[in-house]
Amino acid sequence: MGSLFRSESMCLAQLFLQAGTAYECLSALGERGLVQFRDLNQSVSSFQRKFVGEMKRCEELERILAYLVQEINKADIPLPEGETSPPAPPLKQVLEMQEQLQKLEVELREVTKNKEKLRKNLLELIEYTHMLRVTKTFVKRNVEFEPAYEEFSSLETESLIDYSCMQRLGAKLGFVSGLINQGKVEAFEKMLWRVCKGYTIVTYAELDEPLEDPETGEVIKWYVFLISFWGEQIGYKVKKICDCYHCHIYPYPNTAEERKEIQEGLNTRIQDLYTVLHKTEDYLRQVLCNAAETVYSRVIQVKKMKAIYHMLNMCSFDVTNKCLIAEVWCPEADLQELRRALEDGSRESGATIPSFMNTIPTKETPPTLIRTNKFTEGFQNIVDAYGVGSYREVNPALFTIITFPFLFAVMFGDFGHGFVMFLFALLLVLNENHPRLKQSQEILRMFFDGRYILLLMGLFSVYTGLIYNDCFSKSVNIFGSGWNVSAMYSSSHAAKEPKKLILWNNSVVRHNRVLQLDPSVPGVFQGPYPFGIDPIWNLATNRLTFLNSFKMKMSVILGIIHMTFGVTLGICNHLHFRKKFNIYLVSIPELLFMLCIFGYLIFMIIYKWLVYSAETSRVAPSILIEFINMFLFPASETVGLYPGQAPVQRLLLAITALSVPVLVLGKPLFLLWLHNGRGCFGVSRSGYTLVRKDSEEEVSLLGSQDIEEGSNHMEDRCREVTNEEFNFGEILMTQVIHSIEYCLGCISNTASYLRLWALSLAHAQLSDVLWAMLMRVGLRVDTTYGVLLLLPVMAFFAILTIFILLVMEGLSAFLHAIRLHWVEFQNKFYTGAGTKFVPFSFNLLSSKFNNDD
Q1: Angle between the N-to-C axes of helices 543-576 and 600-611, in degrees from 0 to 180, rounded to the nearest 10
Q2: Which residue spans traverse the membrane (predicted)?
């Protein structure tokens, strides 16, 4: 749990890798995921680095594998995904693998090209057969148009039965036949008419079934056309127009015998093409099936190899060009594992000189590493969305595990809704190893990644729902109400008691629509409900007033405790970074300002709850009035909550007023005194550490090193820091802005926590409205039709409950809980200005075929 409370200690290590063992060593490091590499060649272009040739080879292999995957998907062959990740290929096998893949690519392209060519020829022959079948009927139809195109006057009186159109005009007419897309027929006919000026006869008919286009492979509707024209020039124009409209032109037979001969030849060729095409497809599928067995491992191996060479390009060579030098960030706890990985890599390569490492001192800020598991990962992501934590500062995710679902549940408090959410999250948790959930769509994937957050949110909502005694807007009487209605009747008391008390009788009950229970009457209030709110409040007309008062005060109490805890965590940061002056000059004044005003407000709320009973509640002073009078100093004396209230409040205001100038001026003046008035020895004894040299504050402090290092080292450090520029005005302005923001933020942030009350009220009212508009109507219907109506009403009620109260209201409460953590809680101690530790790990590489890395 210590690593979740604060990021792990990091060190900067220098790796000395022999040129022959560098590949194997980085392969071992990638499998373990221990270090983050630093780029030592930032000034060198990516095209001028040492291993650019190997990177191009990897990209070429990726291109070939992408082509193989594309062809395998086209053939509907399942791609196996192994559970284990294969290691990076040895250098001796890289060339062999490259040759195999290139040979396989050439073979696949050749077979695919032949297959496409055979398929295109087959489709063209099928089109040709359809064209011959349809145009066979066109000759008989042309007889009807013969008189309009008759050229021989000597034949005007002859019978049409003796001469056909083809017999009389065959020597002078030309024909163009083919197929055209259905959408181009109208424009095609208009173009022929305009260009050929009516010297053509166009006959066309629609095919019964759509055919596949040989060029594009798209299945579309086709029209068969037959164009009769007169003269060579007209024929040339017709063929040009057919080319422009992408018509499929086929030869038109002149005689019936020729048509029959062509038809028989087409049938024979189509049968042969079907046979050859099936054999080609079977061979292609066999090749693709063999490739699919190894494509997964090869994709992973090429990705790992490319990642290794990418890291090697970040290394620099020594003078002899025989050794690579790399600088890496590594957790101190993993140094032994890092040495073991270098030894394994050297042993695998068979090198006589092993690679080694050593740590080097640095003043740079290391990256932030916080180890998480599947339970804490979701909460850590919420914190990282605000900002990655600075190195070694307190991590809010540890406390967010409890506070985030609790604040959500305060706004979402309903036993029924929380239990439904808990069951949904529990279902995701129990099936978290299901492969379909891991590969689900974006929205379901978001719910799956936050399954443990949903689980705790639902569990805490069940708890707060029991506190509110709210289950689908209805109260549950588990322990029995602590209020007794019968005790309000005058008949249940002695003869003398009704004169002193306001009791009920039959006339009062009959003539009053609203009756009020008086807790001061003996026997009416028998004690508080054992757990949560008494269910009788669900029947009261002033229920909303009572719950508003309770939830508003509860929101203020929770908010002030939450913010005070945030300020306290800032003290942990100051102690760790050895800046004790920040505790006395920043944290303590902030705590005094917070507690003397808002902590006192909590005290008054709790004091009034404990001291005043039902009998004395009518004379209890208002907390709001007393809190306002604390700042106004009224001239007349008020009753007050307790004796001696005025001196206590004046003392608290005095402490608050004194804490503000200390908060504004204390830290800048102390840093100025350190810079000008104290010697190096005194500062080193104070035990401060130079953690980050990125602000004026750190410039004025000397890092604490062990005194055993000697005075010379201390003097050098002192001289180095003294030479740095110290700007007192900038430090003062920064602290003034921080102080104003904090003092005003205490007020605005406290008011911001009232959203707990507002959203809880809105959720309860929406739930009540939904019940009143649906379930109450369905339950009040006559018993004859009530059962038939109740089933659809319950279904509609469940749908609206899920989408409105669970999804929409849950999302609203989720966003408000995030805001309370980011703005009101984390800004009290959390900087969030760090960089995330991103290790060189093969586990971060995607194993999907459709993702590019």
Answers
A1: 140
A2: 406-430, 451-468, 554-572, 584-607, 651-674, 786-808
The CA distance from 358 to 521, in Å, is 82
Task: For the chain, count helices (H), then strands (E).
Answer: 32, 11
- CA–CA gap between residue 658 and residue 713 (Å, rounded): 41
In the prediction, which pLDDT does 422 show? 96
Model confidence at 509, in pLDDT bands (50, 70, 90)? Answer: confident
| pLDDT tens digits for range 652-686 | 999 999 999 999 999 999 999 988 865 443 443 33
Q: What is residue 6's DSSP assignment? A: B
Q: Which amino acid is at 7?
A: S
CB 174 within 8 A of CB 228: yes
Nearest CA among 137, 123, 269, 148 for reference residue 198 = 148
Q: Please give the residue that has the higher pLDDT: either 523 or 609.
A: 609
Across 45-181, the runs of DSSP E, i.e. the strands, are 173-181
Cβ pair 826, 396 in contact under 8 A: yes
- Find how far residue 709's CA is from the centre of its chain: 50
At residue 667, φ and ψ (nearest 5 deg) are -65, -50
- Are β-strands 248-250 and 211-212 bridged in parallel, bridged antiparallel, or unpaired? unpaired
Copy the structure tokens of residue 721. 């820091």
Whose CA is closest to 656, among 744, 591, 750? 591
Rounded Cα distance between 30 and 24, Å, is 10
**Tokens matching residue 319:** 């003078």
Asked if residue 847 lies in contact with residue 79, where contact means CB atoms within 8 angstroms, the answer is no
Q: Report residue 169's pLDDT band, with 50, 70 and 90 as the boundaries.
A: very low
Q: Which ranges in the chain are annotated with CATH 3.30.70.2750?
A: 115-142+171-278
Collapsing DSSP to helix, strand or coil, 565 comes out as: helix
Facing residues of 16 across strands? Answer: 325, 356
Question: Could you tell me which residues come within 8 angstroms of residue 696 by beta carbon, excluding any fewer than 6 positions away?
Answer: 671, 726, 727, 730, 731, 734
Q: Residue 837 burial (CB < 10 Å; 0-12/13-18/19+)?
A: buried
115-142+171-278: CATH architecture: 2-Layer Sandwich (3.30)
Cα-only R_g, the chain: 43
Other C-beta atoms closer than 10 Å to the C-beta of 20 total 16
Yes or no: say if 383 and 569 are a contact pair by the CB < 8 Å rule: no
Q: How far apart are CA 462 and CA 414, in angstroms?
A: 6
What pLDDT, in 10s, does the model give residues 312-355? Answer: 999 998 777 678 899 999 999 999 999 999 999 988 888 778 88
Q: Where are the beta strands (DSSP E) in 213-337?
A: 219-220, 222-230, 248-250, 316-317, 323-331
Answer yes or no: is pLDDT of 162 > 80.
no
pLDDT of 721 reads 42
809-819 helix and 755-770 helix, angle to the nearest 10 degrees: 180
Residues 6+ apart with CB under 8 A from 198: none
- In single-letter form, the type of residue at position 209 comes to E
Between the CA of residue 91 and those of 27, 54, 95, what are the distances in Å? 11, 11, 8
Question: Are the beta carbons of 369 and 8 closer than 8 angstroms?
Answer: yes
Identity of residue 777: V
DSSP 103: H
Nearest C-alpha neighbor of 642 from the set 597, 604, 614, 599: 604
pLDDT tens for each residue of 745-779: 999 999 999 999 999 999 999 999 998 888 887 77
Q: What are the φ and ψ backbone dihedral angles of 471, each rounded to 5 degrees?
A: -135, 105
Q: 79 near 69, Cβ under 8 Å?
A: yes
The DSSP code sequence of 21-38 is THHHHHHHHHHHT--EE-
Burial label for 459, CB within 10 Å (0-12, 13-18, 19+), is middle
Would residue 225 be called left, alpha or beta, if left means φ above 0 and alpha means ψ between -120 and 50 degrees? beta
The pLDDT of residue 210 is: 86
